[in-house]
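Example record

The entry below shows one chain as it appears in the dataset: sequence first, then structure tokens.
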Amino acid sequence: MELKTYWRVIRVGWVWILLGLILGVLAAAGWAALQKPVYTADAGGFLSAAGATSGDDTGSALIADNLAKSKVKSYIDVATWRSVADEVIADLGLNVKPETLVRSVSVTNPVDTVNIIVQANASTPEGARDLAQAWVRAMSAEIQRLESANGGQSIIQLVPGDSAQLPQSPTSPNWRIALAVGAFAGLALGFGVAAVRYLLDRRIRSADAIERETGQVVVGSIPLEKSFTSSERLIPLDAGLYDGARAKYFRVAEALRELRTNIQFMDVDNPPRTIVVTSPLPGDGKSTTSANLAIVLAANGQRVVLIDGDLRRPMVASIFGLVDGVGLTDVLAGRAEFDDVAQLVGAEGKLVVLGAGTLPPNPSEVLGSERMHKLLARLAEDATVIIDAPPLIPVTDAAVLAHNADGAIIVGSVGKTTIETLQKALQSLQRAGGRCLGVVINRVPIKGRGKGYYDYQYTGNYASQGAPAPAPRPVERSEMVTAGNTSSSPTASSSPDAPVPSRRARRSAKN
């Protein structure tokens, strides 16, 4: 995992990390609350040898001090003897085993000193204080007994020194340490859960993941637009989105312009003219994408023909609000001419929409017929043809169409399409001999937790920061669609980009 991957894990899984932190702190607080308080008191003394305090003989005092230092290490071990614990029990009248009492006391000796420090733990402040002082007294008596064991005079003795102070607060549990450890453990647990979910999540997350897993280039990323509905999901027909209420579609329009540019530069000398737009599964937004792509291509000055090639669940006519019932199947069956059933959208006459028509019982055979192949070839001579095709995995219609087209664009939906379904769709396309022009990531979140996956960069209306664009010319309802279009979307005649010459114009220029 790279550093940016860790950052994405944190941004996407911050809820799990926060939950782990809260649980860790609560668990540590609960553990600390259940522990019995332990108080600690210190008492001290020092070993003294005969002659150590004599001021008449400096040499004797030095020898006595060295003797005490040599003995002090040995008497540290004496502090753990049962005899010392038994004497403390008798002194304080305790009802406890000597082994248990020894574990409550620790005896240390500061380096290069004859001092002995006794640290005692008890459940009450008074108990800790009394135990520390009683332990010093018991050690003094034990050392006195050992030094005079042969009936001689004791040379070494433990002199009680600093008396134990009454502790003001318990030393255990340490709430600060407990809460800090709990918080750290909770953060580690929460991050671990977030990282596992991130690594096991096979839904499409970024262009890098798609290109790495499938080998296909991502040609566009379309942001999530929550204002889109089943009846209103089109950008304005002029694609000039710099005024008032229409500015909310700016992100979508900019993403589609980027997709348009990428398509045009796939092959500069001979860009694709017949493009199939499909998806792995239903509901990925391929119909909306194909419709809006046709709009931005037409806004660029190109003549565009949008064909509804989904002969199972046609959507294009309803998206544009056009007359339904006649269309592609009627042209292929010879019942109507293309110019009779194609419907013009917009005032400039650059976008022509051909609905699905009567739904046939054998859509794959109809779409793969020679008449369909000839129709696409004829239309592509002076127009860019966009075909809205069914999903690749459930049926073979899209693969059949892609075989007779310049290529297919596969639309994947964020949070829904997985890498495996995308790979399966590509395999279906390859088996039919179709060419994949690239993948479009749809419904990319621009804020919230999902933004951490995709790092989408559209953060505002860039055009609004510059000089204001001229207001679009209002278009009469009669100008919108010439063959029964009932759409009420506003249009304008301005094109943001220079028109690209058609293939027929380029061929004429060469001749």
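Notes for this example: Confidence is low (pLDDT under 50) at residues 452-511. The CA atoms of residues 123 and 146 lie 32 Å apart.
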